[in-house]
Amino acid sequence: MEKIQTKPKRQMLNYINIFRGLAILLIVAGHTMQFGSQGTWINNIAFEILTGGTVLFIFISGFLFQYLSDKFEYKTYLKKKWTNVILPYLITAIPGIILCFTMPVTYGNPFDGLNPLAQIGVFLTTGRVHNVPTWYIPMIVIFFLLADIFIILERKKILYKLLPVLFLITIFVPRMAIEPEYLTGMSYGAKYWAYLSYILNGFAHFASMYIFGMYLSANRDKISLCYKHRWPLIILMLLTSFVDVILLHNFNISNGTISKIFLTLIVLGYLNHYDDAIKNCNWFNNGADFIAKYSFAIFFVHWYLNFAFNRIFDVAKVIPASNGQEFIIALGIVIVRYFAVLGTSLGILYILKTLLSKIGIKNTRAVIGV
Known about the structure:
The protein is mainly α. The protein contains 19 helices and no strands.
């Protein structure tokens, strides 16, 4: 009998793996390094530079989805997403749910007083309340559910023709702002709809970057153009950042995603161009690979540690800085907070992964995300 040859499993692209590590570093920075008094230039500049790491994460998600889609089967795909994304999300939600019940005012739970089971349902379907960054999970689930349609449209050569319209939506439909204090006086139903609207807004806003990630994965020969044209991209990134800071400062209008689109292309171009050099630089490549492997788990837990840091050291989420001396102090605090949150996240996750492995749980990724 002739032996059936199976197609070898696709290997992770090193430059995308490193990109994933860098993306989580920016996301953690966006949540830990905000400083400057509200509405000041320094606050607006810090906000523009440090926030928006979600753009990179969305792009990478789309890129990897297309890259691994040659054997796509919808049910199998959804099962894997349940195991590798939804399960660790549900498990790592537990500390946030406990905080919402035990410290509703301090932690910012606008659903305090609602039936506890209903609250849990609200938390898990919106993400934003119990663990602020995990609003991303309900949003990315929409992309998961549409995966079959994306594949069909791609194979019919329709999907990428939608990119111009999707980018226009990204530009003219900026992300909503939502905080517990914005919902004062609303009914529980109205609050819940506000959070669901936030998820749907995120989906519409970021759809362009997910599809664009798929496009560059399908046309990887074009990635070299990102490095070739890096200087125009850098200029466009700086220009759009400058305009966004002006609009934010003068009109309280902001769309930092636009500059992060250019940042995505710049980083992608550099990582792809210097891929061989990075592979040969063991300390950097191994370190970035370690962070990349833990990236999703870091995403799940870092907000809790950021909250703990602020409580233990009695500092605000956004450190005020209205003069030169306060600026230096604020900068020092956010740098310490960044490395404390990142380092503690990695340490705790490493210990948990080791303990879970020792008690016989082989797929620790389904528990803590790594």
